[in-house]
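Weekly modeling sync, notes
Attendees: S.R. (lead), two postdocs, one rotation student

Agenda item 3: backlog of single-chain predictions. S.R. asked that every request posted to the team notebook include the full sequence so nobody has to chase files. The rotation student volunteered to paste the first one in as an example of the format we agreed on. Action items at the bottom.

Example entry:
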Amino acid sequence: MRRWLVALGVFCTLAGVVAPAAAPASRGITLETVPALRGIPVELDGRLYRTNTRGRVVLPATKRSLRDRLVVRDIRLPGRMKATFARWYGNLDRPSNLIKAALDIHYLVRWRFTDLQHLPIPFGRVTSISFKSSHGHVHKFRQDDFDRWHWFQGSRVISTPEGPRSKNLYYTVEKVIVDGTNVVNRAQQRFEPVNRRDIPVRLLFYSARFSAHDALFKFGIGRGIKLTFPNGTIKRYKFESGAELTVDRLPRGQYWVVVEGPGMSFLRPVSLSRNQIVPLEVLSWIDIGFVVGVVFAIALGLLLVGRPWLLRYAHPQTYRVHWEALRRRWVEGSA
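Predicted structure, as returned to the notebook:
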């Protein structure tokens, strides 16, 4: 008899321990956010609830569909973040004890431009910038938007065999347009908003050393150059001493250059993809006169070689004889 009483007491004790643990499940529906975030506002039939530190909130039990009754509100979070509702995991038409709400987390991001030496480049030089997210979305911004913070999605929830989980997103810099040309290598620079919010974007800017010299005699010549940029803009630069000059911080791209000064200079293409020295040749008037003289001398030489009898007209004595004959005729005619 004593054994039965002891067994009955143990059973009652176990029942008292198990029953409270099972009670919450019978009292309502547990909603859990993915990722687990505290303070997310959940509204059911107009009544507001908030998740706890585990990202959970217990809602009143119901057998009715929750599809049009249950709403997860967007919310701003500390640290320049916000959470927005993405989708449900669970049957809202026949609600069970556990429903999961997937949240997208967004971060405020801004960027700045530098050259390859990490020196700042003003926003005014850049026309546009394009980012591409790891899930394929392209974000393009114009110059007027550069000096503001922008929302970038930093994570999204994906389905796995173990259930839904949050995955961080990354972004790559696709294009940065300066003077009509792209000055970044596509997808070479990347960042994750969850880890970094102030993004330095390095641009491919180079320097070019231009020098102009005479085509034949190699002396420096010219007043300066006329440089056509990839977008068609034309800028003029004056030479320094020795008919040379250096133009710094030119965006990568295709340029056209011509020397301004005495003589003839032909338009030359310059493909700027690194720091370069660009020698330019000018056909000066001295070169043109020299070439004309050489051609004339060659033509005269060929003429005299074929007609040697013409050489006697070139002798000084021949000129004196002809001059005396002309002078006598003039005197006789005057008399």
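Discussion: group reviewed the output briefly. Residues 2-27 form the longest helix (26 residues).
Action items: rotation student to repeat for the remaining queue; S.R. to check formatting next week.
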